[in-house]
Structures are given as structure tokens and as C-alpha cells.
Amino acid sequence: MYVGELLKNLDRIPSGVPGLDDLIGGGLLPGRVYLVSGPPGSGKTTLGMQFLAEGAKNDEQGLFIALFETPDIIVRDMLRYNLGILEYVNSKKIIFYDLGEILLGANRELSWDELFKLLLEIIKREGAQRVVIDSFSLFESFVTNPEGKKRELGRFVRKLRTMDITTLLLSEMLSSDQYTDEYYLADGVIVLHHFMRNYQMVRAIQILKMRGVPHDSNLKRMRFTNEGITVYKEAPL
Q1: How large is the angle between the packed helices 112-126 and 149-162, nearest 10 degrees?
Q2: What is the pLDDT of residue 3?
């Protein structure tokens, strides 16, 4: 690896989430793959859209690959925030791809190899620099060889790195002590939490893992605001 490439690895890109970059030494490492995990309603899709909107603001091409919600519903839901989503969609700085419709309409299940090749074809075709896949955990329902996941996912992650594409994999949290392959293979893991305390909903974020980056792994308070998710320095409780 040349010195220039090593120095490039020290660059950071903003996540688009106020307060988050302070927990990870100034931002995300470009060209890496990150897992964003959490229970339903914890803010995974919102965080993903903030990430893409930040890229669009800086003239980076964004791609949202949807498996569950249709693109029109996602866009409508995101209009509650002051992110400029509609402007970015109309100008095609953020492109939505409804992969769920394609997979549900297929006459056969795919192998992990075929599935990841399809994802790479879509990403290359759209010229994306920032990619969000929502929800990565749903892929299990569309493959015939679950035992081959780890190997093919490893190849997929390595290929995305060589393409210099920064990717967020959004995934449902199964349990606090059950980790799937993507937890181990991703360069970073961001976990979103919500729980009840004194009859009130408390939201929190945790940097479970972040390779090559000094990071704060303690739970931090998180709130939904007009700008999307905002992260605060204090503990949630």
C-alpha cells in the first residue's frame, strides 16, 4: 500500500447525524462498511437517510436499496425532517432502488453469491458513493444456502472497500447477546436502543465497534428532532 493510500485512510466523512461524529473521532472512515442495528422503531432508517442527505449536500451520489418499505413510503416518512430529501430525490442525488419488489417477484430463491452480485451490479450502475441497504437482515428470507453467508458476505465487504464506497447495512437486532455474521465482518457497528423508564421512552445509541477509530462505547442519549436523530454527550439515564 502506498503512503498516499495510507493517508487517505485517515480521512473522515461526516455521518450527517449531529453529535455522532464526536463519538467516533470526527466521522466515518470512507470506503468502509458499517452495520446499524436496533429494534423496530429505533431510528435505523432515519439515520440512514441522514447519512445519504449529508452526502448529497456534499455532491456525493447516494443510493438507498429498500427490501421492505417501498421508496415512496420512505420518502413520505422522511419529509417530517428538515433534510431536503425531496430536493435530493428530484435532482437524483439520492436514488431509491426497490429490490424487495424484484426479489418478491422472482420465481426462485437466490444463492448468497447471486444476491451479492446483484447488489454490486446495482451499486455500480448507479455510480453510488454512499449506500444504505434496508433491511439487510431480510436477505435471509430470499436465499437457498444460509450456510454460505459468511464467506460471500466477506467477499462483498472486501469488494465494496476496493470500490471506495461507504455503506450502511441496516439490520434488525435479534437480541443483545446474539450476533450475526455482519457484526463480525463490518468495519463498525452502531447500535440503537429504546426502552421504558418511569413510563417514558428513553432512546440511546452505542458505538459497539469501530475499527481504526478511537470511539466512545458508552450509551449516549439520542432524540428525534426536526433535523432527524441528534446524539448527546450525556448518558441516557
Answers
A1: 20
A2: 42
What's the CA gap between 182 and 165, in Å, rounded? 17
Q: Residue 221 contacts by C-beta under 8 Å, 6 or more apart in sequence?
A: 202, 203, 204, 231, 232, 234, 235, 236
Q: Helices (H), strands (E): how many in the chain?
A: 8, 9
Residue with the larger pLDDT of the pair 110 and 117: 117
What does the pLDDT look like over 10-43, one tens digit per residue?
Answer: 689 999 999 999 999 999 999 999 999 999 889 9
In degrees rounded to 5, what are phi and psi of residue 193?
A: -125, 150
What the block records as the C-alpha cell of 112 is: 448468497
CB 96 within 8 A of CB 64: yes
pTM attached to this predicted model: 0.91
Strands 220-225 and 228-231: antiparallel
Whole-angstrom CA distances from 4 to 9, 113, 143 are: 9, 33, 40
pLDDT over 70 (residue 72)? yes
Half-sphere exposure of 102 (CA within 13 A, CB side): 12
Question: What average pLDDT does this structure show over 130-155?
Answer: 85
- Residue 222: enclosing H or E segment and its boundaries? strand 220-225
Q: For residue 233, give the nearest of 104, 223, 224, 225 by alpha carbon.
A: 223
CB 44 within 8 A of CB 237: no
What one-letter code names the amino acid at 212? G
Strands 200-210 vs 188-197: parallel, antiparallel or unpaired: antiparallel
Cell numbers describing residue 91: 435532482
